[in-house]
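User: Show me an example of a complex going from sequences to structure tokens.

Assistant: Sure. Here are the input components:
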Amino acid sequence: MTQNYFYYNFLLSLTDQIKLWMPDKDNNIGDRFCDLGLDLFTEEGFEIVFNLYYHRLLHVANHYVSQQEDAEEIVQEVFVKLWDKRKKLEIDSNNIHGYLFKMVKNRCLDHLRKRSRNLSLYGNPGQIEDFLNFKALSDQQASNIIADELKEQIIRAIDLLPERCKMIFLKSRAEDLTYRDISSELQISVKTVENQIGKALRHMRFHLQEYLHLF
Amino acid sequence: MYKELLQKFLDNDVSKEEREQVIDWLKRSSDNQKEYSILKAEQVARTMVDVPDAPNEKAYGAFKKRRGQKHSHSFVRHTAIAALIAIGFFLYSDKIAIPDIISTDTDSEFLTIRSKEGFNKMVTLPDGSKVQLNIDSSLKYPKNFQDGERRVSLIGEALFEIVQDTLRPFIVSTADYDVKVLGTTFNVKSYGNDTRTETTLIEGKVELLREKEEPIALIPSQRAIFSKMKKEMKIEEVNAQEAIAWKKGSIVFNRTPLQQVALDLERKYNVKISIGSPSLLRYEYTGTFDNLSLEESLRLLVVSSSIDYEMTKNKIKLKMKE
């Protein structure tokens, strides 16, 4: 009996070891937002999304739309649209990622199409540039490359959010989950859980120091 | 096509001849265009960074302005969201004497504006926000809004249309609680006499703050009623337009206890109204008085309810119809 128990534990610890070297599973962004308890209906929740996406989407728009002001306008309008749609309950944290990139891409394409009636390689330099950008952005394979990079960056950024760190810490303390529980629930390695908890503890210790002088 | 040349083209680091070369190459086939598209996408992905060029707060501020513009109505000159909160106090005790004159006390950095009995008064605050004072109301505010907030004190009733400024939240102090404005239009009714304080939100979002209590957030068409006696807060759904009907000289009653009807009529017509029997105090009256004279109002009251009245000089007594 005891032998099985030890063997079982041995296997478990092995899988933990493996997870140490495995990158975190590519969790759906929607799941991550869900874990965070992100609420798009609050100003704070919406601002978190804005801060994650705005400058990245602007970066994309800037590369395909020649004028910077136009690029800014496009991305700003997409967020306003998002704000409205979220009120009508058409968008939530599950589909927000796909929505944002698609919207920016389509609006850029619309903008490029509007700028000259005949986009071609035979026009003036401006038309040529617009044509090339239009082709480059509408190419599915090309835009997928950008979409994938965006997704990776967003996932990494979410994992670094202080809110996420706090959430993991609370799971361990308030929900009384073991690191292993948390690791399998969130599909991240135990090492990552440890890191986040350590971060939370350091953060608290640092701020507690400010109050220690009262004692 | 040599990748280096294409890359230079992407970086806009080409001579005129090199540029022509690339464009000719692109003209030749759509496969070439595809190759270019992919190369460009890789560059965009490669250069996408975690840290923004400019701080996001600025962009977020611009975004908030933009979404606010979609909801502004003719009343608002600035691109701000106005909120109407009606706060009403209903107290059955002695009236607070407010002088007849419109006065502007200047004590150091504060201004106090009072409305004359029988008249509304419009005030424009240093930041451009507009406040419309109802009868018998006074608003105290600093000559300049400084630091991190815009704080005003209100006795009475007023309609606020607040200019959006996320860096400086707008706070209305009343005797019982503070109303923190998050970019809205709201009506605050807080008369010393009244037994209740009411805050009605028309558009936007506000928070009601009391010491040692959790802040209460309101959404449009909600009214928070604070009972001074019970020290309790109750939230109701209301017709927000009715709450601010006083702006146009209308008074709207919706199952309003007669005690309050009397107070509102007293205020509007500057008369003394007494109620014949204690049980009548809680009689609920529903009706709208659209810019009526005192006599017309009283007649309407008689016609639309079981209430009758007796008038001697400037004193009116309400009683049950026989």
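The lines above are the inputs; the final block is the predicted structure for all two components together. The radius of gyration of chain A is 23 Å.
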